[in-house]
Every structure is written in structure tokens, then in C-alpha cells.
Amino acid sequence: MNNSPQLSATFADRHIGPRPDEIARMVDLLGYADVDALVDAAVPASIRSAEPLRLPEPASEVDALTELRQLAARNNVATSMIGQGYYGTFTPSVIVRRLVENPAWYTAYTPYQPEISQGRLEALLNFQTVVSDLTGLPTANASLLDEGTAAAEAMTLAHRSNKKSKSDRFLVDADCFAQTIAVVRTRAEALGIEVVVADTTDGLPAGDFFGFLVQYPGSNGAVRDLNPLIEAAHEGGALVAVASDLLALTLLEAPGEAGADIVIGSSQRFGVPLFYGGPHAGFMSVRSGLERSLPGRLVGVSIDADGAPAYRLALQTREQHIRREKATSNICTAQVLLAVVASMYAVYHGPEGLRAIAERVHSYAGKLAASLRAGGVEVVHGDFFDTVLARVPGSAADVVDAARQNGIWLRLVDADHVGISCDEKTDVATLTRVCQSFGVQYDDTLGAAAITVPRTSEYLTHPVFNTHRSETSMLRYLRKLSDMDYALDRGMIPLGSCTMKLNATTEMEPVTWPEFADLHPFAPVEDAAGYVKLIGQLERWLAEVTGYAKVSIQPNAGSQGELAGLLAIRGYHHGRDDLERNVCLIPASAHGTNAASAVMAGMKVVVVKGNDDGTIDLDDLRAKAAEHAAQLAAIMITYPSTHGVYEESVREVCKIVHDHGGQVYVDGANLNALLGLAQPGEFGGDVSHLNLHKTFCIPHGGGGPGVGPVAVAAHLAPYLPNHPLLDQAGPESGVGPISAAPFGSAGVLAISWAYIRMMGAEGLTAATKAAVLTANYVAKRLEGAFPVLYTGENGLVAHECILDLRPMTKETGITVDDVAKRLIDYGFHAPTMSFPVAGTLMVEPTESEDLGELDRFCDAMIAIRHEIDRVAAGEWPATDNPLVNAPHTAESVINDKWDHSYTREEAAFPRSVDRSSKYWPPVRRIDGAHGDRNLICSCPAPEAFQ
Ligand SMILES: Cc1ncc(COP(=O)(O)O)c(C=O)c1O
After folding, report:
1. The Glycine dehydrogenase C-terminal domain covers which part of the protein (predicted)?
2. Whether the domain at 351-438 and the domain at 762-933 fall into the same CATH topology
């Protein structure tokens, strides 16, 4: 539905928060004549672009939607029975409206501030419980990026955890999905792991392997008894990872019960549309003993200051932002929104509902197999769940063609075989058409196939999966959880390095259109003409704004873009027989993913020092570049730096590295400070990744989805990612796939397309200027309360500023944590804490916040500073004041007992808090360490909350 009239203002006017008079006031406070004068003073002339961006004239919101409708119409959606990890599923309407299309869910940030994230943490704990129950292993994480990368993570987990094996060989059963094998190979190559693909039907090949991956059910449909296979692999000293399917596991023996060490897969078919390949939540569960090596985020149960149960992210010290090059994985942004959808699908259907869906799918597959056999078509496997492999010597292509004419996509396995996967959407009419394509009759009266090793154990017995059966109940559960959380629809989320800006409704609209949502990633490419055009345009526009020659949108997050970019650099050096180049220079202040990605790309990290003013120490860089000249592969820098300043010396940095034979990787996470003003490809970068979920408006989803396109100069273009199942996805000479789907998270690309299309060159540039203005305004207003740690030219910052709390902490004992939690009482999400400098807060207001909201934030920070002064003056004891006790729940302030040194009023309604819209956190400060010591990562019994 779209009957809104042509809107009066341009989209850029709506996207950019401050009104012209507000801009004038802000510029005035900063002492500049206008915003251009401020930007000229902040951004070094040496990096400024000479020409404006060459982008189409901006479209209005209505016109952009019309163009998107035209693109959508070019996609020819058929019924998909291709399978291979992507299946038809019905997203319950209540989940579409109340979750997928609800900004309270999709505009939330990663739950690093758990007190304001209890709703989505509960939803993620439900997800972990679903995965853990169905796979039969005790600990599951809160999502990975897709099934292919989950398999690659399983390989590296097995490699580092298998202390008994000295082998560097990883065995992969040949009946794994082709894209999974290819992603595993891409990752293995850089790490020196040898991947051996073998048919293990008649036993495992000879030799030592540290790990073994098998698909269950197999890519061609066969369901094998895992028990003897796993036993044999264990006997040979390998750890076993099983790639599996959550729906199948409602009927089949759980891999964990058969002895698997790791289970991975995709939760897509639990209510998440095909989306032409993504975003979908990958998952991983592990047996006891491996939980501390699990990659990705893990939600656990802990307690708050009152001893009440509370959720938070567990074991965070495993993650790249702490362990950097020693991290177990580089994954940062994951697929939270999609994991939440999958969890809610399980909550709504419950164990009986899921089982009923699985039985129907299995029964249809059985009837299809019987009908084919009755018509004289050979069916290869007797044991299957949803996928039937038909043998039609020499005529497989004809059958697939006939089905396509009939509106159905089947899988062309080879010249003699066709694969047909049934799913939740399969019905008699569809199977009748499938059978017609084989020239046989569908007979619905034929019996279903049996399952040889059925599941006997219970699953999803927790009350949450057995309560919300009516739509009313589900509606209220979703509302209850989102009400516990703070998202952008409540107020500003000033997280430095994260660019929590407006995710406009017009940008979001196309995501759920069936022409974009219901396309299988391996559908004939001619049926995806709309997507191909949209992706081509988006890649060209991204190349234009960054100044690079070519872009691949395949990586599913910034971390994956980093890995793709570093693999491109590696491919380039190897292509020139420069095989020794494996040193990656990384400034001390870099984001943790940089170091972790470098290690995953087979590189050795060498840290470059920073100066006291936050800039790169050029002398140290020269020395390190000279010392490692023969091995120098790359430097990874962030621009503007993670210190929030435009470094004048960036061209010099690039030159030093180039002069020593290295390549320059510019982390593009901070592109919101550059668009329209400067291009990394122009000022010295050879490659960058971008975070479309920052600068280009894909919402953060509570921790994903993301898209991390990799952009490269012409000499690196031959080494971009490609895909074994689609030539158009990348160059033949490419490094292999970095994601399971040819175009990664294609389903959310229309968001960024719409943003660029509606902003145009002028709008994007205006947004950048506004982002620089708001950051400098906040820095200026707060300078008396909290000093800004680093500034660039003329004492100005870029699009974010670091507030230094360390002197205050030294004086008063009040920590950065106390301030962050106290901001919750004032109705705010805290800025980024202790990154890149411990004891600081990094504020990034973005261009979308208007002056009213910026002032509300600054007023809150200044009021907090006054509270700290009262602690310093001894007016409030250091151990009992509103800061150390923050945040305050409603329950804590209405409690009959109140023996604090400050009033209830001061606790809950400090100055400037609007009483009518007060945000109440559901829990008090959470004790993270308690949860790590007593690890609980699935739904606790309801009694725990009494
Ligand atoms: C500077 C920087 N680089 C890289 C990343 C990694 O991006 P992603 O979380 O999408 O993997 C981030 C994300 O927070 C970042 O801030």
C-alpha cells in the first residue's frame, strides 16, 4: 500500500535532523560563518575531492518506490524447490508486522548495554534454546552470518580445539552443500588447512584429519545414521561437525545424541524469507568443553544488583574487540533480527506445531517419491527428509526446464539427476505440477516414507515454547519484549563507530515485497533480473562514492568485507609471485576485527604506535615498514581514525606503505564522515570495506543483519569474491566465496539503494557535513564537563568525539560504566564505552538527530557531571550515589525501604527527564562476571524469576 502524496520536502530534508535555523545556531556556537566554513576547517584540504559525486539526481520518496517497484517486477518469482539450505516458509503475519517491520526491533543496537536490551536478549536466549534443544548439544550461540561461514567457523574451532591431532587436514563429506564446501575452502586456503572432500558413504578415507564435516540430511537428500560415522571419525582422532537442518531435527535423531562435537546450519526455514540468499541467521552449537571456544555472541543468564535474574552477553573476552589477533573469530555484527524471527517462529508454533510442519513436509516428499517411482522414475535414496533425488538419465535439464515453464524451480544436479526439496509451502497442486514435469502423475494417496533413525527425545519443553498459541498472546509477547528495550524509535543512540542514524521507512518498505523476499539464491539468473540490475547499480554507486574501481556486495558484515579485502591483497601478492608478503601493520587504535581478520587471512599482525594526539606515529610506521619491507603485505587504517579525527598525514601513511611494497586497506566503517567530501580510493587506499548497516542506513537489527561490501582499486579487482554456483557473482580469478549466497544479504540491499537514490550527490554531501557539525557541536557543549581527548585541525573533530573520563575517574572513583548506566536513568543509550581508549566514551550523534535531541543529550551529560561533582565534594558517599547505583528500576524506587543518600526523585527523575515518556529499565545493573562463572545459556526455568 502506498497512497501518500508527493511529499513537500526533499528526502534529504527529512533524513537530516537539524533544521536550517538549528544549523545556523550550532555553527554560530562553534564560531563559524556557515557549515561549509566549519567543514573546510575540519577536513584537511589535502584529501578533499575536487569534483562532486557523479550520481543520478535525487528521486523523491514516491519516485524511488516506483523505481523499486519496476525493479521488483523484473524478478520472476516461481515456487522454489531447489533447497540447498534455502526453503519456502511462511512468516506468520504477526511476526512480520510486530517484529520484521517494527522499528522497536529493527532499530535496536547490539545488546552491549544489557540493562536496556532485556527484550532482545530474551528472544536470543530463546533462539539459543531452540538450537541447543534441536541439535542435542548444550550450548548454542546467538547467530552466525550464514551456513557456509558457520561451517568455516566449525572448521577453525575444531582446528584450535583438537589438541590430540597434529593434522592440518579437514575432511568434508562430498554430500555437503556446494556453497558450504566452497566457503570452507576459501577460509582454509589462507590458513594452510588442507580440505579433503570425499564420499564417505562406505567409510572414511585413510589418513589423519583434525576434523570432519558431514551434512545431515545430505545435499542430495540422503539421511544417514550418524552414529557409526561419528564413532569412526572420533576413533581416527577427528572432531565432528554436522551441518544440519532445524526442521528436519524435529523428526531425526539429534546429532548431539549421536556424538557430534559441533552442529551448524541455517535457521532460515524458521519463518525467514528466502531474500535471494540472505540475510539469514546461521547457528552453531557445541558439546560441553567447547563453549569457551565458540565464535560469535553468546547470551547468558546472570543476576542484577538486586539478585534478580537478568540476561547479558556472556564470555565476551573471547571476542575480537578484546582478544584482537588472538580472537577465536572475527565475527562482530551477526544476524540478530533474523535469529529473533526464527526464535519467534518456534515460540508461536511450539514443538507440536514444528513437528506437524516437518511431518507434512516429510510426508509430501514421501508421496512425491512414491509417485515418481510409480511413474517409472528412479528415486535414488530411500531415506530422506524433504529432498528427493530423481535419476532421469540424460534428461535432467529437460525436466528442470519443463518445471520452470510450470512456475517451479527444481535443482539441476547434473545431466542425469534432479533434486526436489519440499518445504512448508509445498502443496498438492505444486507436487502435481512437479510430477507433470517428469511426465508422471502425482498420487496423493500413496504412503509416506519412514525415518530409520527417528528422534525420541523431547525438545522445546520450556513454557515459552508452549504458551503463545493465540495471536493475541503472541502479539503481546512481542510487545512486552520490545517495550523492555531502548531502540532508535525512543531516542538517540550516540554510539561512536556505529553510526546509528535514521533507517527511513521508505527505505525499509521494499524488504518484504514478495518479488524481493521470495527469490531463491540459486534460481536461474534470468529470473532475478530486477535484483541483478539493483545490485549492479548499487555496486557502481558505491564505487563512485569511495573512488574505487569495483565493488562486491557479497560479504555479510564488515568483518567479512575485511577478510575479503585482505584475501584480495593476498591474491594480488601471490599473483606476482610475492609469496613472502604476510605482515599486516595495524595501528594500536584499530577496531578488533581488523587484527582478527588479518590473522584469518594468514597474516602476521605488527602493531604501529600512536602519538599522544591520537595520530599514527609516522616514525614508528617508517621503522616498521623498513624492518618488514620484504614481508610487508598491507596496512589497515581507519579513516577518519577510530580516534574521531581526520589525520592530515593519511597520504603520507599510504605512500610509506606503498614505497615498501605493501597495500593500503582503509577500513570504511567511518565513511559517514567522508561521503561527498573525500574518497579513500583517491587519497591512497587500495581496498576498503563499507558497512551498509552504518553509513547506508541498513538498520542494526539489535546486532545484525549487516552488509560489508568490499571495494577495490582496479589491480585488486581480479581477486574479489566469486561463487561456484553463479558466474555473475564475481571474477573467475576471484578468491572464492566469502558468503554462502552469491550476493550475500541481497534482501536488504534495496535499503541502501533507496538511500543513495533519494539523497543524490548533494544530499549525501549535506548529510556528511551535518554529521561533522553535530559531533563538533556536542564536543563544544561538553568541553567544560568532559574534555575531548583528540582533535584534529583547528581543534575540531570529525563525525564523532571521544570524551575523556579518566581524570574524573581518578579523582572521584566514578567510572565510565557508572556514567553509561546513569545515562539510562536520563533516558539514553550510552555512547561507545572504552573503545578505542579504555575509560572513555565515544559519541557519534550522526546527521539524523535534531538540535532538540542533541541538547537533551548534552544537558543530561552536563547534569551527570554535576552529580559527579557532588560525589567529589563528599555530598554523596562514593559507595552510595545515583551513579554507582544506576540504573534505577521502577521497583527499586517504589520500594518501601529507601536508605540512600539521595532521593527517589533524584534517582528516577533527574533534571531534564520527561516524566510522561520516562524509559524504565527492567533490571538493575547486571553482574556480568557472575554469569560467566555460572554459565547458563538457555532459557532458565520460570521459577528463577519468582
Ligand atoms: C571501525 C570498524 N571496523 C570494522 C567493524 C566491523 O564491522 P561488522 O560489525 O559489520 O563486522 C566495525 C564495527 O563495529 C567498526 O566500527
Report:
1. 767-888
2. yes
pLDDT of residue 913 exceeding 80, the answer is yes
Rounded to the nearest integer, the mean pLDDT of the chain is: 96
- Could you please state the CATH topology (level 3) that the domain comprising 103-346 is classified under: Aspartate Aminotransferase; domain 2 (3.40.640)
**CB of 497 shorter than 6 A to ligand 1:** yes
CA of 879 from ligand 1 middle (Å) equals: 36
What is the number of the ligand 1 atom nearest to the C-alpha of 559?
Answer: 11
Topology of 762-933 in CATH?
Aspartate Aminotransferase, domain 1 (3.90.1150)
CA of 771 to the centre of ligand 1 (A): 19
C-alpha cell at 506: 521508505
Please tell me if the CB atom of residue 329 comes closer than 6 angstroms to any atom of ligand 1: no
* Domain layout of the chain by residue ranges: 103-346, 351-438, 536-757, 762-933
Give the C-alpha separation, 192 to 474, whole Å: 49
The verdict on the CB of residue 559 being under 6 Å from ligand 1 is: yes
The cell numbers describing 474, all together, are 503472541
Q: Which ligand 1 atom lies nearest to the CA of residue 562?
A: 4
- Give the phi and the psi of residue 418 in degrees, each rounded to 5: -125, 135
Pocket flag, ligand 1, residue 703 (CB < 6 Å): no
* pLDDT (0 to 100) of residue 5: 43
Lowest-confidence segment of 57-61, 187-191, 313-317, 664-668 by average pLDDT: 313-317
Residue type, 298: L
pLDDT band at 2 (very low <50, low <70, confident <90, very high): very low
Span from the CA of 350 to the centroid of ligand 1 (angstroms): 36
Distance 619 CA to ligand 1 centre (A): 27
Instruction: Tell me which residue has its CA closest to atom 8 in ligand 1.
Output: 558
In this structure, how many other beta carbons lie within 10 angstroms of the beta carbon of residue 189?
Answer: 17
At 328, the pLDDT band (50, 70, 90 cuts) reads confident
| Ligand 1 atom 5: residue of nearest CA | 558
Q: How far is the CA of 553 from the centre of ligand 1 (A)?
A: 16
Q: What integer pLDDT is reported at residue 944 of this predicted model? A: 76
Closest C-alpha to ligand 1, atom 14: 498
Nearest residue to 556 via CA among 318, 344, 313, 737: 737
Q: Which residues pair with 286 in a beta bridge?
A: 139, 262
Quote the strand ranges of 784-858, DSSP E. Answer: 801-804, 832-833, 840-843
pLDDT of residue 7: 54
- 279 close to ligand 1 (CB < 6 Angstrom): no
In this structure, which residue's CA is closest to atom 10 in ligand 1?
A: 558
For atom 9 of ligand 1, the residue with the nearest CA is 333
- CA 89 and chain centroid, separation: 22
pLDDT digits (tens, 9 = 90+) for 4-29: 445 568 999 999 999 999 999 999 99
Neighbours of 604 (CB within 10 A): 13
Grid cell for residue 314: 556472556
Is the distance from CB of 684 to CB of 691 less than 8 angstroms?
no
Half-sphere exposure of 696 (CA within 13 A, CB side): 31
- At residue 946, the pLDDT reads 66
- The class that CATH gives domain 536-757 is alpha beta
The rounded Å distance from CA 498 to ligand 1 centre is 8
pLDDT over 70 (residue 839): yes
What confidence score (pLDDT) does residue 8 get?
65
